[in-house]
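S.,

Sequence below, as promised.
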Amino acid sequence: MVAAGLAVVVLAAAYICLPRHADLTKFDPGAMARIETAMWRNYYEKRYLFLFRDLYEVARGQYGFSPLDSVQLAMAAADAARSFQPSTSRAEAEAAMPALISYFRVLSDAAPAPVEIEDAARTELAWWQARREAVAPEQYGLIIARVATLVYGVDGEDLRRSGVVRAQAMAYRDARDANMNEADWSVISGRLELAYGLLKKALSPPVHE
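The prediction came back faster than expected:
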């Protein structure tokens, strides 16, 4: 019985910790839109446990990270969001940087190109802050696109448009704020699906005839 129990523990540990071949390009745009919409709702309602669940689902289900790495990613992302949310200045927002650096350090293992981790973390924080400062979505959307360029190592019109469409979805939510209803969340989900579809297209190799 002891040997059997030990075997179960070893197998469980191997399943949780064994590295997987994670790939940031393998996401499904529709699933990403659904999960991110749920993330936004949970973030604004300060339901951090549910936010953690959604972040885990992206890392594990969409990118293929191991359970252990998925937990690390979810914890780092949730911690960054929790640190940033109460901040009222750029100086206070710096509290999110350590968690963002931890997040991009793990994420970079599945990136198709080398990632400058601190640059990616700082650029991510830059669009969070720009959005809070009422910068136009067409402007901070390009910062979102820059994060994608730093992570994926590509650029182009589809990638930049993806960032802007995602920012416009955020602006739609911000304009309605506490008055958001189910129809509004459906609109946001549709816009996010378009944004992730454009990102997927930007990452696809060109078709040569």
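The chain has ten helices and no strands.

Coffee later?
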